[in-house]
Amino acid sequence: MLVKQVSIFVENKEGKIADVLKILAKENINISALSLADTTNFGILRLIVDDPKKAKGILQMEDMIVKINEILAVGINDQPGGLAKVLDILAKGKVAIEYMYAFTGHKKDNATVVFKTNDLEKAYDCLKINNIPLISAEDINQVW
């Protein structure tokens, strides 16, 4: 159960992230989660949206560099050690994490963690075998 994530190359200048978000809002594309990684001159804005294909097309029409990546999203207990348990499972499975971000939803005591790994299939298998709940794009967009 892979989730599609929209990654946008954004110049590190005032208002550039706001520009992306305004374009998506104008097209009625809802953002469920986001992460920003930056360097001195640019950043990568990662979004989980309700229509990744439409978002990519619209942003590309605005001359933005956009890519759709597949990621894994898992549900964890929002308590001490919840994330450590999942990371330990992946480490024992020899899965390296390239990046991750997390957010909470409306369900009390639950959080969602998004992972990009060096081997998504292997990560998926490790998590599934260990009964870690995998979250679909639909569930994320409904605020798991």
What is shown here, in short?
By secondary structure, this protein is an alpha+beta fold. The protein has helices at 16-26, 52-61, 82-92, 120-129, 137-141, and strands at 3-11, 31-38, 42-49, 65-77, 97-104, 110-117.
Trace the largest sheet across and list its strands.
2-3-1-4-6-5
CATH architecture identity of the largest domain: 2-Layer Sandwich
Return the string of H and E elements: EHEEHEHEEHH
The coarse silhouette is: globular
Query: Which residue ranges are poorly predicted, with pLDDT under 50 across at least 5 consecutive positions?
Result: none
The tally of structural domains comes to 2
Strand content: 35-45%
How far apart, in Å, are the first and last alpha carbons? 15 Å
Looking at CATH, which topology of the largest domain would you report? VC0802-like
Would you state the CATH class of the largest domain? Answer: Alpha Beta
The number of helical segments is 5
Largest β-sheet summary: 6 strands, antiparallel
Derived structural class: alpha+beta
What is the β-strand count?
6
- Helix share of residues? 25-40%
CATH superfamily of the largest domain: VC0802-like
Mean pLDDT: 91
User: Rounded to an integer, what's the Rg over CA atoms?
Assistant: 16 Å
